[in-house]
Recover the amino acids of this structure.
């Protein structure tokens, strides 16, 4: 199921990029997560919400590093970074 979700997200993202390119408009296109990052994001999100019962407050991509950043927990005390290869970072940058 995770692989189908990743494929669907990548397909939608690709269509958006092609649409921007075909209209010749200059737009800031946000950094797109890699397939490995999306798989890890699904796994971390599933564990946070179903096993640990923690809310997720923020998911974003750091344009400087390309890492996916996750902020979770009732008091926003849980922070995760997913590297472009899909591995979780041991320490925040």
């Amino acid at each position: 199921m995770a692989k189908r979700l990743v494929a669907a997200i990548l397909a939608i993202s690709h269509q958006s990029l092609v649409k921007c390119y075909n209209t010749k408009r200059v737009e800031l296109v946000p950094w797109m997560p890699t397939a490995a990052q999306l798989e890890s994001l699904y796994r971390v999100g599933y564990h946070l919400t179903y096993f640990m019962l923690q809310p997720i407050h923020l998911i974003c991509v750091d344009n400087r590093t390309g890492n996916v950043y996750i902020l979770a927990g009732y008091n926003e005390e849980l922070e995760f970074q997913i590297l472009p290869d899909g591995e979780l970072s041991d320490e925040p940058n």
In short: Helices lie at 2-22, 35-51.
